[in-house]
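Below is a filled-in request sheet from our internal design queue. Each sheet records the structural input a requester submitted and the sequence that came back. We keep these sheets so that new team members can see what a complete request looks like end to end.

REQUESTER: design group, bay 2
PRIORITY: normal
MODE: inverse folding
CHAIN LENGTH: 346
BACKBONE (tokenized):
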């Protein structure tokens, strides 16, 4: 069994990771940390895990944590995974970070968008962006996996075939994303207050959201040229899910049917990316609880634009599920170990 530690086990992403790993056949939940609930059992804080997870939550002690685990997951606010990364590197263990600390290759860009000093910049070059559909081989041998952000996962998977094949003019790219409230984490805030989010729908982070440079980094690598985007996230009155709608001008004539075939070919063998048949559109309910990213492409011959729609569960393919998929890649296990293809419905 592989001994795993989860730092930030009491956050939404961390708790979902605990749930998924509790039924993983090769992972043993060894250390679960919490800042606010150390000393309590996991199930006292999360009753859905009663009878499933018996661990007592511990305060974070980085050297001790790393010494007791083979693989550490960090699910912390940004800026806090860096010391864990340093200790993991020192002791030759593995880290899968669900936050943003190792995603951006350019430390200056990280510091300017996250308004935080990067204290482990030497580790950034060796960290691998943890999107298995694009970086499977690199993830396998990496010490630090930078699990992607939730919005970036939906956008990058939705756009990868178009950029790889140079089928769109990247300068015309617009990404419009809608997220459930769990994307903002479990902590109390005015933004996620019941009466602010119920029966309400609002944009936020317009032209300033910190996922913009992450999406641009990955799309630029796919396109082989710098890509800048307009990215607008929205908060919707639902708990889970991200739906991204993306628009761009096509560089050549292609039909919806031809493009759908090309997407199917690009993602052939990728069981967690479901390219939907023409006429079917992604919806968040269809991926809730599963590690799937559903994608549909439509060509508007009138405007010569393509419209790509993708849907994920922000806590699964957008966070904990993708982290388990990365663990499976590292361990050489089938990537679906411990993960679901069909989620909850209704
Ligand atoms: N929510 C989502 O959909 C997604 C989240 N992520 C990323 O995952 C990470 C966690 O997000 P999320 O679960 O939503 O956040 P939450 O706010 O729900 O949880 C944060 C966790 O970090 C712990 N924590 C906070 N500050 C510290 C600290 N200084 N030292 C040690 N532990 C601390 C908290 O402990 P305690 O509860 O005990 O206070 C809690 O366990 C973030 O980087 C986030 O951006 C990535 C993709 C999607
Ligand atoms: C709805 C909502 O508030 N979503 C979060 C998503 C952040 C997240 O999870 O991403 P990182 O891992 O990059 O921090 C936000 O916009 O900040």
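RETURNED SEQUENCE:
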């Amino acid at each position: 069994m592989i001994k795993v530690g989860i730092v930030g086990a009491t956050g939404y992403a961390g708790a979902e990771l605990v749930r998924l790993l509790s039924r993983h056949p090769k992972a043993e939940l060894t250390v679960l940390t919490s800042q606010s609930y150390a000393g309590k059992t996991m199930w006292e804080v999360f009753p859905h895990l009663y009878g499933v997870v018996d661990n007592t939550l511990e305060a974070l002690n980085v050297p001790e944590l790393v010494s007791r685990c083979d693989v550490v997951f960090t699910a912390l606010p940004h800026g806090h995974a860096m010391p864990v990364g340093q200790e993991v590197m020192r002791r030759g263990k593995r880290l899968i970070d669900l936050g943003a600390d190792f995603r951006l290759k350019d430390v200056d860009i990280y510091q300017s968008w996250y308004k935080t000093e990067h204290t482990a910049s030497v580790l950034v070059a060796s960290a691998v962006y943890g999107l298995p559909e694009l970086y499977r081989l690199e993830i396998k041998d990496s010490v630090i996996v930078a699990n992607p952000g939730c919005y970036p996962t939906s956008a990058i998977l939705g756009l990868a075939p178009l950029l790889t094949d140079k089928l769109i003019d990247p300068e015309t790219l617009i990404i419009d994303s809608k997220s459930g409230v769990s994307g903002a984490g479990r902590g109390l805030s005015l933004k996620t207050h019941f009466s602010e989010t119920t029966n309400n729908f609002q944009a936020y982070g317009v032209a300033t959201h910190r996922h913009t440079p992450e999406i641009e980094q990955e799309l630029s690598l796919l396109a082989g040229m710098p890509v800048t985007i307009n990215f607008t996230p929205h908060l919707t009155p639902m708990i889970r899910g991200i739906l991204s709608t993306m628009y761009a001008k096509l560089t050549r004539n292609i039909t919806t049917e031809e493009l759908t075939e090309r997407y199917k070919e690009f993602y052939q063998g990728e069981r967690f990316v479901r390219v939907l048949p023409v006429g079917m559109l992604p919806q968040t309910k269809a991926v809730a609880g599963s590690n799937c990213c559903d994608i549909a492409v439509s060509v508007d011959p009138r405007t010569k634009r393509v419209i790509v729609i993708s849907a994920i569960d922000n806590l699964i393919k957008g966070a904990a599920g993708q982290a388990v998929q990365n663990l499976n890649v590292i361990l050489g296990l089938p990537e679906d170990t411990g993960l679901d293809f069909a989620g909850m419905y209704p």
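SHEET NOTES:
- The pocket of N-acetyl-L-glutamyl 5-phosphate (ligand 2) is lined by residues 78, 99-100, 149-150, 179, 183-184, 211, 233, 235 (CB under 6 Å).
- The mean pLDDT is 97.
FILED BY: M.R.
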